[in-house]
Each structure stands twice: as structure tokens, then as C-alpha cells.
Specification:
44% of the residues lie in helices and 18% in strands. By secondary structure, the chain is of the alpha+beta class.
Amino acid sequence: MNGDDATGERGSTLPLILGFFLIALLMVAGGVAATDAFVRQRALQDVCDGAAVAAAAGSGDVRRGGLGGGDGYLRFTGVQQGVEAYLARDPSRAGVRVTSVLSADGTTIRLTCEQTSPIAFGAMFGKGGGVHHVAHASARSRLSS
């Protein structure tokens, strides 16, 4: 008589294989979710960088089509309009919230961009409402001489 038959352990490898399969599946899903969150963070950083540059360029010299006072210093209204125009160019940027701060000397704009976005398999990991991403960017105005 076989030792496995005597102890009644025949077929006990199937639950073990299924358990390992589920663990592997969870690990793959976690990797996909983490990659998705990373890619969305990078995309938000790209949008924030572009908005900062657009705000600095849009607030520049009036003679070059900017919204500033003609002296090369940033103006808050011009910054807001530059950011809004940049975000309006692409519908995928619609959920991005931007907060801007001008430096005291009027030469630097600092933006904080926020977005909550869903991620792949988010509900599986308790993030069904999405992941909140925050990105920061800054840009300087070109001062006219």
C-alpha cells in the first residue's frame, strides 16, 4: 500500500496550487495598479510643468502677445489665463486643479496641481474612489532688458 493512500492526503496539492495561483494573481494585479498610479503621477507632473511654462510665457511682454504689463514681470491675471488656456487645449486635463503662487518679486510662478484618478484594480486594493496625485512645478518669466 502507498504511504499517501494510508494517510488520506491524496489530491491535497490542488488547494496548494490554487492558493499559489491566487497569490500570483494578486501580485500581478498589484504590479499593474502600482504601474498605473505611477504613470498617472508622471502624466500629472507633465501637465503641471507645461502649465507653469504656459503661465510664465503667457504673462510676459504684451508686445509679444503676452498678458502682462509689458515689463516682463508676471501678473496674476495673466498667469491664471495662461494656465486655463493650457488646460483647455486637451480635454483629458479637465480634472486637474491648479493653485498658483507668484513670487514676491513677480518673476517666478509656482504651481501645485492636483488630480484624483482611478487606477486599474483600484477596487481590489481599497482604492475604488481613485488615488489622489499632487505635482509641483515652477517657471520664471523672461525679463525684458
